[in-house]
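Customer escalation, tier 2.

The customer says the design service returned an amino acid string that "doesn't look like it belongs to this structure." They asked us to rerun it and document both sides in this ticket. The original structure tokens are below, unchanged.
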């Protein structure tokens, strides 16, 4: 049990175990992604002139989805890390919001495999985009809940930093919505929109550095 600056008792929990759980699930999900790249045990008969080259070309969708999903999960983890760096305590509500977010993080290897196995079917991409959108929405909900209960946050968290944190957490849901729209209209490779994430984040960092 902890108390805020006004002396009011709050049922607050140490955030360290929640961060450890988060890191563990992200690490597990990131590792599982590589298992979606399946190398066949047997080569086709008759053998092509360049069997390894042919195999690698055949695995291109697998590698594309692997890099996409890895980039998405790494972006979520980094945003969550920056957010929780400003969290002092986690109450039960914030803890459960985090757990529900991790539920869908652990689902990313499945939606990734679905989208690269059925790469020519828009519905497979829709599932992946929805998976990312739900995670992004839950992470944004976590942030807004914590920001609305400021006793959960460190005291030196400035308004500009709060705005920057929210803007960063809104990027992935926004990109997921774009990918979802592309999937719905029939663009089967809609997940490539997530390759824009590094450019967006670098642009946001540059803009923040220019603000006096």
């Amino acid at each position: 049990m902890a108390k805020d600056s006004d002396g009011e008792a709050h049922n607050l929990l140490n955030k360290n175990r929640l961060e450890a759980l988060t890191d563990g699930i992200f690490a597990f999900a990131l590792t599982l992604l590589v298992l979606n790249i399946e190398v066949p045990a047997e080569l086709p008969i008759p053998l092509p002139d360049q069997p390894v080259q042919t195999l690698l070309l055949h695995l291109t969708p697998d590698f594309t989805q692997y890099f996409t999903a890895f980039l998405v999960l790494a972006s979520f983890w980094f945003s969550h890390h920056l957010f929780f760096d400003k969290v002092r305590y986690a109450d039960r509500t914030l803890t459960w919001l985090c757990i529900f977010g991790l539920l869908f993080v652990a689902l990313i290897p499945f939606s990734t495999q679905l989208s690269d196995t059925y790469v020519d079917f828009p519905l497979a991409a829709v599932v992946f985009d929805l998976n990312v959108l739900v995670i992004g929405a839950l992470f944004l909900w976590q942030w807004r809940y914590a920001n609305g209960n400021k006793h959960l946050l460190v005291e030196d968290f400035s308004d500009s930093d709060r705005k920057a944190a929210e803007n960063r957490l809104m990027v992935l849901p926004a990109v997921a919505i774009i990918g979802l729209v592309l999937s719905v209209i029939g663009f089967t490779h809609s997940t490539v929109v997530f390759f824009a994430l590094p450019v967006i984040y670098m642009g946001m960092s540059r803009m923040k550095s220019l603000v006096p």
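Tier 2 assessment: The sequence is consistent with the input. The first helix runs from residue 16 to 33. The helical segments are 16-33, 51-58, 60-84, 92-105, 108-117, 122-148, 159-184, 197-210. Sent an explanation to the customer and offered a walkthrough call.
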